[in-house]
Structure formats: structure tokens, C-alpha cells
């Protein structure tokens, strides 16, 4: 007869082992759930997708559910390291692996590709040929630049020259745009776009940020291009003298290029401007509040960003927003600058002269 307490103790010891102490799918620490068909330990968020795949995975709580001896013995022969060595054997280097803080949609696609379609085991020669070809194609619905209509567009990701192209016609050979992946940032935006699989793709076009708003029905292209921004939302912004009227703008802060871009609204295609954010050693800092004597706006919670060239003043609607923006700025400032960041800083300064 199975001993619930003994089996629970064994599972709790197993989940402390290296590789088992983090979710097999997103890396979240201290997973409390396990798939007794796959032999992996997963977090509560990833366990939801596993429950939707009953033919592939069966989930139990390692703390609350009853475990038969046979299931515990099976878990002892598997574990996250062994399972991932098989299911992630041939993950392409450019394929984005979701992290703990990523959205459910991205995790869901990763888990289905990993276990349901077994895309990375090396068993399917056609799948591996598709990945190894260096080209990956998918259909996304893209919002028009000057209207709200979404139109079907063909996107092509090339690992050879590390670019993303999109075409206005499915059979067209001439792309509408060729986007360098090193200048690209993509993040899920279901609420902003009004679709569960809404995606915002941002990239540089003549040193200005350009946004594409797309959604997909079930595109496997999305995990290949997805990245993340640190923080975005509305703030009020004044001008260089700090006596210009405050204007409400949509801001996006990105750690990859250390840029704070701002737009008239959340769905604008082209940025109005951008601020480079360096390190404290290079003269950048952030603090709560606004300078004395500066003009007031509709919102009350100030954020002052110091740069070598100018002092920027922003106002937030809520104190929580103020705290989040300050923490986000501090995170960027604390990160060391890479060689490409010095080029970005120099280019942005040159454009403002």
C-alpha cells in the first residue's frame, strides 16, 4: 500500500535537486506541480497548459495530491534534466524560450511546441529541415499605418542575415520592409490591440522607433521574434524649459537599446522622440518629484530624469505608476553599457543638434 507521507517526502526531496528546483518550462523557482506522464516538475502557471494536454501530460500537486508508489518511482527515473535533454535537444538558437514573467500565450506556445508537437526532439526531419534552412515563414494580421483595419501579411524570418521581412501580398517577392533583428523588440499586447494574441513589434527606421501592431491566429513565427520591454504606459511630459504645457504621451522603456521612446498614443506607428539612458557614471540619474519652480500639470506624481544634456520631468497619474517608472529607470541605469550603446547615444545626440 502506498504511503502518502513517504511519497510526499520523496517528491519534496526530488524537487530540491538541481534542475528540478526550477520549472522545466519557464524556469520559475520552487515548482509545486509535476507531470507524472512526462516526469517533469513545473510551476502553477505552466501546469495550466499541461492540464489542457491530457493525452500528453497529467498533472498533480506534489504537496496536496495522493501519489501512488508507481508514479513516484517513475518520477525518480525522469526529472527535468533528463526530460529537457530529450524534448529540447534541437531547439534552434534563435528560438525564444519563455521566462517566468512572460505572458501565458508565449508559455502556452512553447509547451505545445515542446511536448505536443515535439518540434525539438530531432525526430521529425521536416521540422528540423525547416529550422535548419535558416528561413521561417508565418502569417500575421497587421494594423494599417493610418487606420484601424487589420490586413493579412506574410512575414519571413531569416537566420542567415538575421532580418524579419513582411510582404503586402502573399506571393510578392519584394518586401514592404526589411527589419534587422538586432534593432527589433516584440512584446505581447493583447489589451492594447484587442486580441488575445496581439503583438507589438518595434524597430528602428532611420534612427526613429517604428511600431507594427499585429495579431496571429496560431503563428509559430511569434516565439522566434518575441522580446520584452521593461515598462510602458502614459505619463505627462513637459519641454526643455519646464514651462511648456505638459502633454500626455505613451512611453516605452527598453533595456536592449536603453531608450525611452514616446508616442502620441499607445497605437501610434512612429515615435515622436526618444531619450537615451546611460549609467550613473555617465551622468544619468532618476529621482522622485519635480524641480521646484517647474510648471505643474494635471497629474501630481513627478519623476525627474537627469541626463548629461537635459533634465526631463514627467508626471504620473498614480503613485504606483511613479514607483514603477522610477524602479524601471533605476534598473536601466544600473546595467553597464555595451559597445553598441555608445553608438546609440552618439547617434541620438547628433540627431538633436
UniProtKB/TrEMBL annotation:
Alphabetical list of InterPro entries matching this protein: Arf-GAP_dual-PH_domain, ARFGAP/RecO, ArfGAP_dom, ArfGAP_dom_sf, PH-like_dom_sf, PH1_ADAP, PH_domain
GO cellular component: cytoplasm; plasma membrane
Residue ranges annotated for the Arf-GAP domain, each copy included: 8-128
The entry's keywords: Cytoplasm, GTPase activation, Metal-binding, Repeat, Zinc, Zinc-finger
One protein family per Pfam: ArfGap
GO molecular function, one term: phosphatidylinositol-3,4,5-trisphosphate binding
Principal cellular location given in the protein's record: cytoplasm
Compartments where found: Cytoplasm
Gene3D superfamilies named in the record: Arf GTPase activating protein, Pleckstrin-homology domain (PH domain)/Phosphotyrosine-binding domain (PTB)
Entry annotated with the keyword Transmembrane: no
Domain PH: 228-334
Matching SMART domains: ArfGap (SM00105), PH (SM00233)
Biological process, per Gene Ontology: heart development
Entries under PANTHER family matching the protein: ARF-GAP WITH DUAL PH DOMAIN-CONTAINING PROTEIN 1-LIKE PROTEIN, ARF-GAP WITH DUAL PH DOMAIN-CONTAINING PROTEIN 2
Protein name: ArfGAP with dual PH domains 2
Amino acid at each position: 500500500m502506498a504511503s502518502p507521507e513517504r511519497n510526499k517526502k520523496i517528491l519534496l526531496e526530488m524537487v530540491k535537486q538541481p534542475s528540478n528546483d526550477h520549472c522545466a518550462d519557464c524556469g520559475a523557482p520552487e515548482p509545486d506541480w509535476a507531470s507524472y506522464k512526462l516526469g517533469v516538475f513545473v510551476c502553477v502557471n505552466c501546469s495550466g497548459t499541461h492540464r489542457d494536454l491530457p493525452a500528453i501530460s497529467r498533472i498533480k500537486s506534489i504537496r496536496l495530491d495522493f501519489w501512488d508508489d508507481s508514479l513516484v518511482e517513475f518520477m525518480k527515473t525522469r526529472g527535468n534534466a533528463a526530460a529537457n535533454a530529450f524534448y529540447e535537444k534541437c531547439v534552434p538558437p534563435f528560438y525564444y524560450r519563455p521566462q517566468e514573467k512572460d505572458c501565458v500565450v508565449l508559455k502556452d506556445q512553447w509547451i505545445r511546441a515542446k511536448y505536443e508537437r515535439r518540434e525539438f526532439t530531432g525526430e521529425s526531419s521536416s521540422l528540423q529541415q525547416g529550422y535548419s534552412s535558416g528561413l521561417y515563414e508565418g502569417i500575421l494580421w497587421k494594423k494599417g499605418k493610418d487606420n484601424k483595419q487589420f490586413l493579412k501579411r506574410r512575414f519571413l524570418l531569416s537566420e542567415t542575415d538575421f532580418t524579419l521581412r513582411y510582404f503586402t501580398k502573399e506571393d510578392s517577392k519584394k518586401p514592404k520592409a526589411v527589419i534587422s533583428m538586432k534593432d527589433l523588440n516584440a512584446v505581447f499586447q493583447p489589451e492594447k490591440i484587442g486580441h488575445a494574441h496581439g503583438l507589438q513589434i518595434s524597430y528602428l527606421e532611420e534612427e526613429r522607433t517604428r511600431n507594427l501592431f499585429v495579431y496571429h491566429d496560431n503563428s509559430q513565427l511569434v516565439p522566434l521574434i518575441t522580446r520584452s520591454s521593461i515598462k510602458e504606459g502614459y505619463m505627462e511630459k513637459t519641454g526643455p524649459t519646464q514651462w511648456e504645457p505638459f502633454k500626455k504621451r505613451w512611453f516605452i522603456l527598453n533595456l536592449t537599446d536603453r531608450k525611452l521612446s514616446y508616442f502620441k498614443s499607445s497605437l501610434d506607428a512612429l515615435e515622436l522622440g526618444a531619450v537615451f539612458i546611460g549609467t550613473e557614471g555617465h551622468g544619468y540619474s532618476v529621482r522622485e518629484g519635480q524641480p521646484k519652480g517647474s510648471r505643474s500639470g494635471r497629474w501630481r506624481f513627478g519623476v525627474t530624469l537627469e541626463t548629461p544634456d537635459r533634465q526631463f520631468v514627467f508626471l504620473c497619474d498614480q503613485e504606483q505608476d511613479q514607483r514603477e517608472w522610477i524602479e524601471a529607470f533605476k534598473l536601466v541605469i544600473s546595467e553597464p553599457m555595451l559597445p553598441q550603446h555608445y553608438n546609440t547615444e552618439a547617434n541620438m545626440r547628433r540627431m538633436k543638434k
